[in-house]
Specification:
This protein is α+β, with helices and mostly antiparallel strands. The protein folds into two domains: 70 residues, no CATH class; 176 residues, Immunoglobulin-like (Sandwich). The chain has eight helices and twelve strands. Helix 1 packs antiparallel against helix 2, helix 1 packs across helix 4 and helix 2 packs across helix 3. It is rod-shaped and about 100 Å long.
Length: 294
């Protein structure tokens, strides 16, 4: 027991002495909080039972009742062993780092194609005509926007049209003015085994004038050759909706889809997927831009 006249340590000082004997310093705050709460409760009870006590006297008695801070600290050190403590911290840091890396490399991909198409104005390369424009601002762009509500759900997937680019071109058969519509399609899925859903070749489009732009699996080429689409049957390419996966990650797949020979009088193009007998995906996209998809 302390000699008369020797001031008793305050609650804060007592907690500091206890923690001085606990080697695992990351737990000092939690130990201090727990001891402080206990000592303050004891102090308040003493004040309630004996109103003649000052708060400092009641606090000193509560601290004295806790005993030797060194002995208490040594006992707490046994239950706050540094080895498992640091292991838990290392494990939490590793998990958080892995999650951050997963977000960076899976949900925020930095592939060249996506960087060019999403983050920066893309270079325009018309593979159909062989005309290469080195800079975006040299290409004639009729519409370039990010649709606001072009989202569809299919089983385990959430599909969305991330960006639409409309540029002029010559019709591959007639040579008349036409449009090329490029669409960045995104598929999100929570199961890595479901990445890259098989929609390529089954995507097709239809404009508001009734013109259809089939994908390469949408129609039998024999039907085209028998006159169903005679003007397309003579074309070097039988199909006018094309493209496929441009980037695959465990949880996100991007598709570079484009529709060629689109009627320049059309104001809306609807991208569809109906491989299994009914329309399961449908993206109405404005050809005039401004995000006015309806």
């Amino acid at each position: 027991m302390d000699a008369p006249g020797v001031p008793q340590p305050t609650i804060g000082q007592f907690c500091a002495k206890v923690c001085a004997w606990v080697r695992f310093w990351p737990d000092h705050d939690a130990i201090t909080a727990e001891l402080t709460a206990h000592l303050e409760d004891h102090r308040d009870v003493l004040l309630e039972r004996n109103p003649a006590l000052s708060q400092a006297e009641a606090e000193a008695q509560a601290v004295a009742a806790m005993g030797d801070p060194e002995a208490l600290g040594r006992e707490l050190d046994k239950s706050h062993n540094p080895l498992p403590g640091w292991f838990q911290i290392l494990f939490r840091v590793s998990v958080r780092t892995a999650l951050i890396l997963l977000l960076v490399f899976c949900f925020l991909p930095k592939a060249t194609y996506l960087y060019d198409l999403i983050a920066a104005p893309p270079l325009y390369n018309d593979d159909d005509t062989g005309v290469i424009v080195e800079h975006y601002d040299q290409a004639e762009v009729l519409a370039d926007y990010r649709p606001e509500h072009a989202v569809c759900y299919l089983e385990h997937y959430t599909f969305s049209a991330e960006r639409v680019l409309v540029t002029p071109r010559e019709h591959s058969v007639t040579g008349e003015p036409a449009l090329r519509v490029s669409v960045l399609l995104k598929a999100v899925h929570l199961n890595p085994s479901l990445r890259c859903p098989r929609i390529s070749g089954w995507l097709w489009a239809e404009d508001d004038l009734g013109n259809r732009y089939p994908g390469w699996n949408q129609y039998d080429p024999a039907e085209l050759l028998h006159g169903l689409y005679p003007e397309q049957a003579a074309a070097p390419e039988l199909y006018t909706t094309m493209g496929g996966p441009s980037l695959q990650t465990p949880f996100v797949t991007y598709y570079d889809v484009y529709v060629i020979d689109v009627d320049p009088e059309a104001v809306q193009l609807t991208l569809r997927f109906d491989r299994y007998g009914k329309i399961q995906l449908s993206f109405p996209l404005s050809l005039k831009g401004g995000g006015a998809d309806v």
